Structure formats: structure tokens, C-alpha cells
Amino acid sequence: MESNRIKDTVYSAAGIIALLTAWEIASQSIGSSLILPGPFEVGGSLLRFGGEAKFWLAVLGTFRRVLTAFALTMVLGSTAGVAAALSRGIDRFIAPLLASIRATPVLALILLAMFWLPSDSVPIFSSFLMAFPVVFTSVKAGIAAVDKELLEMALVFKVPKLRQLSMLRIPSASMHFLSAMKNALGLCWKVVVAGEVLAQPLRALGTGMQDSRLALETSEVFSWAIVTIVLCGISEFSLGLLYNRARLVRSPQESDQ
Amino acid sequence: MNTLVIDKLSLSYGAIKVFEGLDVEFPSGSVTAILGPSGCGKTSLLNIVAGLIQPDSGRVIGNKDLGCSYCFQEPRLLPWLGARDNILFALSRFSDTKESERRADKALEQTRLSQFADAAPPKLSGGMRRRLALARAFAYPSELLLLDEAFASVDLKQRIDLLDLFTALWSEEPRTSLLVSHEIQDALYVADRILILSARPARVISSFEVPLPRGKRKYGSGDLLVLEEKLYSLILS
Question: Which chain A residue's Cα is nearest to B94?
Fold first, then answer.
């Protein structure tokens, strides 16, 4: 077990080193830091960013937007998903809205939101709309996939509907719910930053990225992008830990008793 | 307690006729074992009595007055709840929480599961899960108890232990009980009456009272050899 973990770490580290080497080689061959700065140059600008208050404010601003969009998506997406799983009427009622959102390109959504909302809210709104169908579909599937035999048991013992929902249907959908959380969080990060690039709110990673692009500071654009990737990765990793923990609670290994 | 009456019951699954005007009565406060070939509709009969299946025609009289508890073929426990909470989940409809907790604790104690009250079902052995399902069925206040192969899938020692537990729990709180089984020995050990169903469409081909009092029977002892032979010959024929 432990040796497998060490092996995995070694392979992952080797993958990162290979990627950085390829990047450096490509940068050297192109020979223009405007087109493709090397990893050392990008690392330098990253270090410079670390000492600037503006950078940390941008990180906090984006984090706040991601969390707001994520919380909104989870609350409304889950509620709608549960309602649609329990009522065919509600499911049919939501279907056209869902189909429209799914078919709308993310950029079109952001551009439209820019007409309607202040720049600070555009990334939140767009991100919410993009992640909502993911959460809705997953939670709905989870609630609907409840073990029919357990439902029969609850029916025989005349367990009240609300109790069935809270103790049977929702816990039974918990893995779907956690999986929806993971997917929605990744999506929220991507769409929030894309929304920031276009809407240019104050204190935002996307705004910093766009400003650097306009100033032709390619290494800074890379730095903003790397920060986004790392933050998204950290939050997805944290949720992954929660997911694994929940899976262990749901199916602990059988004891020898 | 009221008698449970199955009146002209008919049920089909597509072209397959499971019951065609089945009539049978279950005297109140008795344990009736139902034996019959696989697929003859034993579980369907219990499910109709429990209200899980609607028959095509005919009716069940008395099941609503009696209230119904069910020990399923599989323990059907919520894997994310502890043993005690599993019992309390089944008792959710009762507003007297203290009484529900008292019944749950008592059932756990009677089935020797008190020290596993917080253990989730995946942490329990197969036999313990069966005991927990039995505890839940008896903790649920009802006058009708359905048992569908509730003592199957465990070794002989555990099977006898489960049957003894059933007898002890039943003696303390007798209920009209319908016990579906493939095991003649189980039926002879705990039932007051044994019904033999035919192949589909099922009808009652024979009904026997078990002559020896339940307390005096020993599992597989041969005390009821004549009846046992009759049952074997009926089922095999």
C-alpha cells in the first residue's frame, strides 16, 4: 500500500518534470518570451506577484465569486434535482429551461449577462447557470436511483415521506451529490475566471489575466493562469478527500465478526 | 385480534397466472408456515398482504386493522445508519419518541445486539444483520408479522438461533404471523399450522396443524416424523 503511494508520487513528479522540460524546450526553440515564455520566467513573475497586495486581493475576489456561485449552484441545483426526482411535473417544467442552458455557449451567456448585471455579478451568474444543470442532473439521478427494496421497506413500515426523504433518499444520493459538488466546483472556477476576463470586475484573477494580455506580458498571463489552475486543483482535491471519506463511511470493510 | 382473510385473490404477471381465486384464512395469533415450490407466489402473497402489490381482483381482509410488520428475504437495512437508528427509522411514524426508543433498545437487547447499537449494517455479520431485521420487525408495533425466508442464508446453528429468537420474541408479543419458507424443518419447529401451496396458479393443496406444543419441539428431532413425511411427499409430488 505504502510502496504504491510512493510509486504514484514518483510517477506524478516525473510527469510534472517532463511537462516543464517540454515547456522549456519549446520556449527555447521559439525564442520569444512574448509568444511562449519559459517556466523560469513565469516562475519569476509568480514570485513577484506573491509580494503584491493587488495579487492577493485578486485571489480573494475570485475565490469569493467562485464560492458564491458554487453555493448558489449547490443549493438551488440540489433542491431542483430533488424536486424533479420526486415529481414528474416539476421535472417536465424545468426541462425546457435546462435544455436552453445546456445548449447556450458559455461565452454567449457571459456576454448576455454583461448587459443585465454589474461586472462583479457576471462571473457568478454565468458560472451558476453553467454548473446548475450538472448538479441538477446528478442529484436527480441519485434520488431516483434509490434502492427500491429499501423504499418498499419504508412503505411497509409507513415511514413518513419527509423522513424517507431525509433518511433514505438523500443519504442514498450522497455519492451522486458529492460527485456533483466536485464537477460543479471545477466548472465554477473555469467559468468565473472566463467571466472575469470579459466583464473585468475589480479584484479578480480574470481581470489581471486580461490586463496582462493587453500589456503584452505573456509571462504574467501564464502566472495568472497557473494560479487559477492551482487554486482550482486545491479546492477539487479538498472535495476529493471529502468524497473518499464519504465513500468509506458508506461502504466500510466488513468486519470479521 | 382479527383473522386475516384472503378472499378470491387473483394476480397475473402478463400471461403468467400466479393466483386465480385463492381463498385462505390465517387465524389470529397463530404462526402459519407457507411452503410450496419456487415461483409459486409465496412472496407475492406476502407482498399483497403488505400492500406492496395490488391484486388483479379479490381482497385481503383484516390486514389494515392488524398493522403490518415485515421481515424481508434480504435484511433491507440502511447501510449508513447504526443498528438502533435502523430500528428507529422503521418506527418513525410513531410520535412517542421515548416509547419508540424503549422498543428499539428492548429489541436490540432481546436479539443480543445492544453492544452493536451504533454499528452500521456493513460492519455486522450476516447472522447479526438477520437478527437486526428480526429485532426491527418485532420492535414495530403490529398484530401481523410477515416473514419471507427470514432465516435463510445462514448456517444451521445460526438458523436455529434465529428460530429460537423468533419463538422467544413471538411468545412475548404474539402476532398473526405468515412465515414463507423452503425449509420443512423450520416450519415444523415454529409454526402452529403449515400450508402447502401448489405450483402456479397457486392454491392451497393441504393444511396441517402441528400437533406438538412449540416449546416441546426440537429442531430436526424427528418427533413429528409422520407429518414431516407427509409434507415431503406433498412437496415432492
Answer: A159
CB contact under 8 A, A158 and B93: yes
Q: Is the domain of B157 the same as that of B187?
A: yes
B72 domain-assigned: no
- Whether the Cβ atoms of residue B145 and residue B137 lie closer than 8 Å to each other: yes
Helix ranges (H only) for chain B are 42-50, 63-66, 83-90, 97-110, 126-139, 156-172, 184-190, 225-236
CB atoms within 10 A of CB A162: 9
Q: Which residues 133-172 in chain A show a CB within 8 A of chain B?
A: 149-150, 152-160, 163, 167-168, 171
> How many separate domains does chain A show?
1
Q: pLDDT band at B1, cuts 50/70/90?
A: low
> Which of residues B118, B141, B164 is at a domain's end?
B141
Please check the confidence at residue A74 and state whether its pLDDT lies above 80: yes
For B174, which DSSP code? -
Give the whole-angstrom CA distance, residue B88 versus residue B105: 10
| pLDDT at residue A255, rounded to an integer | 37
What span, in angstroms and rounded, lies between the C-alpha atoms of B176 and A200? 74
Q: Which member of B74, B90, B122 has the closest CB to residue A149?
A: B74
Give me the domain span that covers residue A211: 40-250
Cβ atoms of residues B185 and B110 within 8 Å? no
For B52, the closest of A152, A171, A251 (CB atoms) is A152
- What percent of chain A has pLDDT above 90? 47
Q: Compute the nearest-CA separation of A180 from chain B (Å).
A: 20
Is the pLDDT reported for residue B119 higher than 80? Answer: yes
Q: Does B93 touch chain A (CB under 8 A)?
A: yes
Domain containing residue B51: 4-67+143-236
A2 has a pLDDT exceeding 80: no
Which pLDDT belongs to residue A174? 85
Residue A181: inside a domain: yes
pLDDT band at A257 (very low <50, low <70, confident <90, very high): very low
CA distance B234 to A81: 54
Cell matching residue B169:
420474541
Average pLDDT score over residue span A122-144: 93
Q: What is the DSSP letter of B26?
A: E
Radius of gyration of chain B (CA): 18
CATH code, A91: 1.10.3720.10
The answer to whether residue A5 is domain-embedded is no
Please determine, for the modelled complex, whether the ipTM score is greater than 0.90: yes
Q: Are A220 and A234 in contact (CB under 8 A)?
A: no
What the block records as the C-alpha cell of A29 is 526553440
Size of interface A-B (CB pairs under 8 A): 66
